[in-house]
Request: fold
Amino acid sequence: METAVGIFATHSEAQSAIGRLISSGVPSKNLNVLTPGDWEGHIAEVPTSDTEQPGTARAIGGVVGGAMGASAGFGLGPILAGLLLPGVGAITAIGFAAAALLGLGGAVGGAAAGEAMEETLSDGLPKDELYVYEDALRKGRTVVVGLFDSEDQAGSARRILAESGSESVDAAREDWWVGLREAEKAEYERDGSSFSASEKSYRCGFEAAQRPEWAGKTYDAVRDSLRQAHPDRWEEPAFRRGYERGRALRERTRARDAELAAR
Reply:
């Protein structure tokens, strides 16, 4: 499964892009949306996990929201899930993949919806980019995710998304890092180390700590899987320092988000 992802500054820009995709022949069932806002007033707060195991989606299928029709103005069919994302507020997830990205199941189809989402997750959904999507949602942006059978189809969709004014995931990831870089550079150089010489490995480790399967876990706890995923960098001191700093940032962010959500 190949993906095409676009991040839009406004709801209306995302709507326009989806219209162009559908007009080009992309089936609406291939398109998924994460957008800030409770478009129908039916939001339920549900605990989520970044490390859900097989069966989780099925277990919570039928818990969140309901069949709310072709709403939010996207014309993509039912909204499958709504939630309050800490630090962001109300989020509407449209489509199985969108709901799966947030670890949620919708009442549409109950357990069957959960099974469909688990299959989608196993088909290459870019969940390792979830922290980029969360950052975009915090900034009030809308994320459109398209799932395709071939790279040619995905490439065509990416072109349409770009022509419609989307920011790519890569560009959003760069913006995310730029916002953190100076603070991380200052911290790294406190002991006289050269940040410029180590930045690639440090950033690799920092970003690894944001991935759902490793979120909140120490370097030592996941070193075997880090070795498999990053065989050329995992042992470098800069990678480890970046990983632990990234883990600490994620924990602080989650704690701050939880505090904001509780107010």
Q: What stands out?
A: The chain has a mean pLDDT of 77. The CA atoms of residues 204 and 230 lie 9 Å apart. DSSP finds ten helices and five strands in the chain.
